[in-house]
Amino acid sequence: MINQATLLNLLANKRALFSDGAMGTMLSQNLPTGLTCLDYANVEYPRVVESIHSEYILAGSDMIQTNTFGANRYKLAQHHLENQLEQINTAGAQIARQAVSASGREVLVAGDIGPLGVRIAPFGRVQLPEAHEAFSQQATALIKAGVDLIIIETMTDLYETVEALRAVREISPQLPVIASMTFTRDNRTLLGDPPARVAQQLLAAGADVIGVNCSGGPNQILNILRQMRRAVPDAIFSVMPNAGWPEQVEGRIMYPAAPEYFGTYALSFWQSGASIIGGCCGTTPAHIAAMVQAFQQSPGLELSAIEEIALSATRQPEDEGALPPTKLAQKLRDGRFVIAVEMDPPRGLSTHKLIAGASLLSEVGADVIDVADSPMARMRMSPWAVCSLIQRNVGIETVLHFPTRGRNVLRVQGDLLAAHALDVRNIFVVMGDPTSIGEYPDAMDHYDLVPSGLIKLVKQGFNAGVDHAGSGIGQPTSFFVGCALNLKAADMEAELKNLRRKLKAGADFILTQPIYHPALVTDFLQQYESQFDKLPVPLIVGLLPLASARHAAFLQAEVPGIEIPQSIRDLMAVSGDQGAQTGIRLTIELIQNIKPMVQGIYLMPAFQRYDYAAEIIEKTRTAE
Predict the structure, then answer these.
(1) CA 172, CA 140: separation in Å to the nearest integer?
(2) How high is the pLDDT of residue 91?
(3) Predicted local confidence at residue 472, as pLDDT
(4) Which is deepest, 40, 42, 282, 313, by most CB within 10 Å?
(5) Per the confidence metrics, is the pTM higher than 0.85?
(6) 430 pairs with which residues across the strands?
(7) CA-based nearest residue to 18, from 30, 27, 10, 9
(8) φ, ψ (nearest 5 deg) of residue 18
(9) Do β-strands 338-343 and 274-277 pair in parallel, antiparallel, or remain unpaired?
(10) How far apart are CA 243 and CA 223, in angstroms?
(11) Is 132 exposed, middle or buried (0-12, 13-18, 19+ CB in 10 A)?
(12) Cβ-defined contacts of 84-90 (< 8 Å, 24+)
């Protein structure tokens, strides 16, 4: 057991102190699948736990954490093990100490305390005194067993973390304590606290080391570390990132960041203020070894020299809590040709066909799925729920169609917040179909904002952190916003003026209505450039593959803004049963003709024939 002064002295004499990695990941790979409580491995499989500790020590860890992350009474009660709490925590500390003794090295043993696994008041029914007692019970067992310090880690609730700190301090005022929290993709805790506030509150509560762990990969944690250090520059920090955001592959949770990637960040963590460096979920002894090796290979490197290390290829521009750009935004920014496909929400509760169709489109190379909102003014499932389902179950990004019609300014803002909370950040702002053409012609059809006004609200309001009334919304959103364009408008001058208003409001990209002749794109671009300048945002052209002669006739006669050349209608008329294949071939030819002029296509498969869209995508990608 050490005290705060000893820890500070140790850190002062080491360029960095390396912790271990993911005990849970390693145990899951080495224990029988029937063991549901990993903490109980201290009792049931102590040699397996000790061997994992030994692997991390061999990799270069200067500190190992006891296998007691979930060994509090609330989590143990889920496995009917609450009466064995002291035994499990004591065994965890003893096993770690045995691994250190066998190694012959001086390695610290940190008693690991994780979240209670229950919500604390006012967001749950467990009161602070009850939480305090639970933390006290676990900390007492660990300290009695002889740990060198306590690490309170992977915490999501700042109040819970502070209560855990108080509990440890009451038992042992001089024992060093690391308090480490985890953050969501928007660089906030689960309850919305930003890194700066977390650092300030933990320091005020008495943490000897302020930590950030779990969360995303090294890049996100580096950003959070820098924000924390700016808020409390004299504090001591620890970082223990996941091996990237977890991905589900064939039913298994996988972490994409390789050990070599961690090695490139080790020096940067230290340069940015981290004195303790380790890993969390998905990190193995190989990840720790890579970071240790990065330091060993630069023994004479001083802090000032580290600042010159070129890590620009892996760093993102620092942004106070903002999410990184969407994948669609990144692809368009990088000049890639994107393929979007429209899907209609289901009419009922079943989403099986929807998910199956989205999976097919993702597999063949679609970049994004556009989800329509009540197309043709017909009742459908909420589109932002569909977007969330697709993103969560298929893993492909979506674009939420967001009509202004039928929404007052209150509902508009509430729906925007709902979409962003579901991580739906690409939106396509459009007026929407009038209810008079749909199943509920008498339904309310009013609106407070036209599309350009809604784009302004999103880009200049929500994305700046304020609502329509100018009041703060807590943190800025990060929407990527598209606008509509009709390349065959009856009054093209009016259409261009409307487009200019949308671009001035902040539109990021343009989606057009379906076209059937490349000259529409050429004529539009020439007209725009002659009147203004080069089009400042990506143009993604709408394509609706024809399925039959009857389909072509319907579109020509009844859908405003669509004009199908007579030559194409004649060709569809003589195609007979091969109409769909003719439509596919014509669409692919049109794509090749317009591809040099645009940055993407927006497929609208008729009659939910996603297999036709898949064929078009495959052939388009093959030709790239």
Answers:
(1) 9
(2) 97
(3) 86
(4) 42
(5) no
(6) 403
(7) 10
(8) -95, 130
(9) unpaired
(10) 16
(11) middle
(12) 84/40, 84/43, 85/137, 85/138, 85/141, 86/141, 87/43, 88/39, 88/40, 88/42, 88/43, 89/138, 89/141, 89/142, 89/145, 90/141, 90/144, 90/145
Using CA atoms, how far apart are residues 125 and 123, in angstroms rounded to an integer? 7
Residues with Cβ < 8 Å from 264, sequence gap 6 or more?
294, 311, 314
- Can you state the angle between helices 285-296 and 46-59, rounded to 10 degrees? 20
The residue written with tokens 């193995």 in the block is 284
Q: For the range 455-458, what are the long-range contacts, defined as Cβ-Cβ under 8 Å and sequence gap of 24 or more?
A: 455/429, 455/481, 455/483, 455/502, 455/505, 455/506, 455/507, 456/505, 456/506, 457/412, 457/413, 458/416, 458/427, 458/429, 458/506
Q: What is the pLDDT of residue 322?
A: 59
Burial class of residue 113 (count of CB atoms within 10 Å of its CB; 0-12, 13-18, 19+): buried
In degrees, rounded to 5, the angle at the alpha carbon of residue 9 between the alpha carbons of residues 7 and 12 is 110
Tell me the C-alpha distance between 195 and 550, whole Å.
60
Q: H-type helices in 446-578, by residue range?
A: 451-456, 492-505, 519-531, 549-558, 566-573
Q: Is residue 241 packed enough to be buried (19+ CB in 10 Å), middle (13-18) or exposed (0-12)? A: buried
At 35 the pLDDT is 83
| CA-based torsion, 517, 522, 523, 525: positive or negative | positive
Contacts of 130 (CB under 8 A, 6+ apart): none
Separation of alpha carbons 102 and 57, rounded Å: 10
Mark 327-348 as b/e (b = at least 16 C-beta within 10 Å). Answer: bbbebbeeeebbbbbbbbbeee
The three-class DSSP label of residue 145 is: coil
Smallest Cα–Cα separation from 156: which of 181, 134, 185? Answer: 181
- Is the peptide bond prior to 122 cis by the omega test (within 30 degrees of 0)? yes
Determine contact, residues 575/549, Cβ cutoff 8 Å. yes
What is d(CA 543, CA 599) in angstroms, rounded to the nearest whole number?
14
Identify the pLDDT of residue 353: 86
SS3 18: strand
Q: What is the structure's pLDDT at 34? A: 74
From the CA atom positions of the chain, what is the Rg in Å? Answer: 29
600 neighbors 538 (Cβ within 8 angstroms): yes
Of the candidates 45, 131, 31, the residue with the CA atom closest to the CA atom of residue 88: 45
Spatial separation of the C-alpha atoms in residues 454 and 451, rounded to whole Å: 5
Alpha-carbon gap, residue 31 to 16, rounded angstroms: 32
Task: Name all domains of the chain by residue range, CATH numbers in brackets.
Answer: 4-306 (3.20.20.330), 337-622 (3.20.20.220)
Contact indicator for 506, 565 with CB cutoff of 8 Å: no
CB count, 10 Å around CB of 322? 18
CB burial string 253-287: b at 16+ within 10 A, e below:
eebebebebbbbbbbbbbbbbbbbbbbbbbbbbbb
Distances (CA, A) of 180 to 5, 258, 325, 413, 461: 20, 23, 27, 34, 33
578 alpha carbon, distance to own chain's centre: 43
Q: What is the pLDDT of residue 303?
A: 38
What are the mean pLDDT values of the chain's consecutive 10-residue runs (624 residues total)? 71 80 90 87 96 96 96 96 97 97 94 94 84 97 96 94 96 94 87 91 95 88 93 94 64 63 86 92 92 79 36 37 83 95 89 89 95 77 91 94 85 92 94 65 72 93 90 89 93 94 96 95 95 95 95 86 91 93 96 96 91 93 86
- Which tokens is 230 given? 């700016």
